[in-house]
Specification:
The chain is mostly helical. The protein has a single domain, classed as Orthogonal Bundle (Arp2/3 complex 21 kDa subunit ARPC3). The longest helix is centred in the last third of the chain and has 31 residues. It is globular, with a radius of gyration of 15 Å. It starts with a helix and ends with a helix.
Length: 152
Amino acid sequence: MFVLALMQHFVISRLLVLHTAPDLMALFIAFISVSVGQRTGTSYGFAAGLIGGFLSGNLGLEALIGTCEGFVAGYFHVPEESHATSTRKKRMFYSASVAALITGNALRSLLHDPLSLPLYIRLPEALILGPLMSMVFAVLSYHFVLKKLLRD
C-alpha cells in the first residue's frame, strides 16, 4: 500500500487532465472491499488515506476520503461462499471502483481548497472526468493482475 501511495503521489498525480488525475488508491481500496468485505475495506481505506495524507499534507481530509471510499465500495462485496462467477466478480469490482471514485472525487472537490475553482467547474471534472480516467487503469489492472486474484 505504501508503494502504491508513493506511485500515486509522485507519478500518477502528474497525469493531469483539466485539474484531475487518476486515483489508484481508490481502485486498491475498491478491490480490497470487494474481495474481503466492508469493514476491512473501510480500515484499509483509512490506512491508505493516512499514508496519502501524510504525503500530500492533508492528513485528516485524505483519511476521511479513504474511509468513505472503503465504506461505499464495501457494499459491492462478493463473499467467497457465494460461488459468484468471474463475470459477476468483475462487474462488482467495476461497480465498486466507480462508486469509490465518485465518492472520493466528490469529497475531495468539495472539501479541498474550495476557493480555487467555482463549484460548477470542479464537480463535473471530479464526477465525470476523474472516474473515467481512473477506470482506464481499473480495466488495465483487472485484465493484467486482478483477473487471476478474482478467479472462480
